[in-house]
Write a structure and sequence with these properties.
With 156 residues, the protein is of the alpha+beta class. It has one helix and five strands. Strands 2-3-4 form a three-stranded antiparallel β-sheet, covered by helices on one side. A two-stranded parallel sheet has the order 1-5.
């Protein structure tokens, strides 16, 4: 009877470990998908500057409603939740007042080490998923948006 209990305990612990690994892989895949979509929205915002040099968004909220046009343009329907925190509390990467990227606040060590898109420089060497920086390349001479929008919540 003790042998049966030991076998069941070992089997359940292995199941929990496998489930944890699968859950982490799913969160990483979701982070990569959400990050790719939000990064593409930032690129579209810069590419669709009405006149003059490309403008950087001031916040992620600028991607929800671009007020640079008479008829508002939307690049995202919503700011997605960070799969590792469950909240839309992305860390922001800035260049001056403009937003050039964002990252997760997750501290988990990434399981995925290869197979990233070509723009995902350094993802394969990241020590934690929060080191995955979803950054756009701001063209030389780019400016921040003329009308700053309300900033999204970001911890210091």
């Amino acid at each position: 009877m003790l042998l049966l209990v030991a076998i069941l305990g070992t089997a359940s612990m292995m199941t929990v470990q496998v489930w944890g690994t699968q859950a982490q892989r799913a969160r990483e895949a979701e982070l990569l998908a959400v990050g790719t979509e939000m990064r593409a929205a930032m690129q579209a915002y810069m590419r669709n500057t009405p006149s003059g040099p490309p403008q950087l968004p001031v916040s992620l909220d600028d991607l929800l409603l671009d007020r640079r046009y008479p008829n508002p343009v939307r690049y995202l329907r919503r700011v997605y939740d960070d799969p590792f925190t469950g909240r839309p509390d992305w860390g922001l990467v800035r260049s001056g007042a403009g937003l050039i990227g964002f990252h997760s606040h997750g501290n988990a060590q990434p399981l995925r080490q290869q197979g990233f898109p070509s723009w995902a420089v350094g993802f394969d060497r990241a020590q934690r998923v929060g080191d995955w920086r979803f950054v756009v390349e701001a063209p030389a001479g780019s400016a921040t948006a003329a009308a700053p929008a309300a900033s999204s919540p970001t911890p210091p």
